[in-house]
Design a protein that fits this description.
The protein is mostly helical. It is built from 4 helices and 3 strands, in the order αβααββα. A hairpin with a 2-residue loop joins strand 2 and strand 3. The relative contact order is 0.10. It comes from Lysinibacillus telephonicus.
């Protein structure tokens, strides 16, 4: 676990409002993706490699290192959450 320190800072109200609007927009976009079904929590290996910006060969190396793969009736898929959790370990 990292040691952290909180530092109080002062920002202008314009700066605060612009960041508040940015986060509201990001949250709204995420909610819309979930509601309209464009957010898919599972991907095939090719999509997973694209998700993290690597080649299929490099993705296979991550699988050998322990990235969980789900196999259902011969179809291999991977969870976005599993990818994010796996990569977080190597941060």
């Amino acid at each position: 676990m990292r040691n952290t320190m909180m530092l109080p800072i002062e920002v202008s109200s314009e700066f605060f409002q612009s960041y508040e609007k940015l986060f509201e927009n990001l949250a709204r976009e995420a909610i819309e993706k979930v509601q309209n079904g464009s957010y898919r929590p599972y991907m095939n290996k090719k999509e997973a490699a694209q998700y993290i910006g690597i080649s299929i060969n490099t993705f296979q190396k991550l699988v050998k290192m322990g990235l969980p793969i789900i196999e259902v009736d011969g179809t291999k898929i991977v969870s976005k959450k599993d990818i994010d959790d796996f990569l977080e370990k190597y941060k």
